[in-house]
Amino acid sequence: MVRLLWISPQEALSVVIATTGMYVAMVLMVRLLGPRILARLSSFDMAAVIAFGAVIGRAALGDTPRFGGGLVALGTLVALQVVAGRLRRVRWGDRALMRHAVLLMAGSVVVEENLHRSHITASDLQTALREAGVRRPSEVAAVVFEPTGKFSVMRRGAPIDPMLLSGVVGAALVPARFLGAPEAEARGMQAD
Hints:
Blueprint: H1 2-5, H2 9-33, H3 43-61, H4 67-87, H5 91-97, E1 102-106, E2 109-110, H6 112-117, H7 122-131, E3 140-145, E4 151-155, H8 182-191
Antiparallel strand pairs: 1-2, 1-3, 3-4
Helix pairs in contact: 2-3, 2-4
Membrane topology: Multi-pass membrane protein
Family: Belongs to the UPF0702 family.
Domain YetF C-terminal: 96-158
């Protein structure tokens, strides 16, 4: 009975190596494909995510999954997450692990090149605009596709602090009339 639950040290090492290999492979795939893979999950995307999990689990645990192997695999995944979190705190680690935010709309103009770069369709962008309550493109100052796979929709009206666009690929395309320093806005409020 114990043999059915637990694994040997050699088997544990095998689980650690397989889990680490699958984790690194998945991180590389997400890095190459971009955060689009994590954005909105259609039914097709959900099926793919479930299949990814099944493949990773099968590769990590081998032919005969056991409780001990599952514990080792879970512990390895948690340890890898901790290591990745610490690596993201240093500049080179953050660059290696994370993608940059990408400008998808500058004003009412769609930046087609960045849509393609991010593997985002026009339909994905339109969905994000509707979810943000945008009724027409003329209401938009900028739309940014974040490294998390989410969309940030900034409306026209109050100026955007340029600091919020630092590090965003294509930020220079946002028309200057939509930008403003927070100090200038504060001075304008004091004059009223």
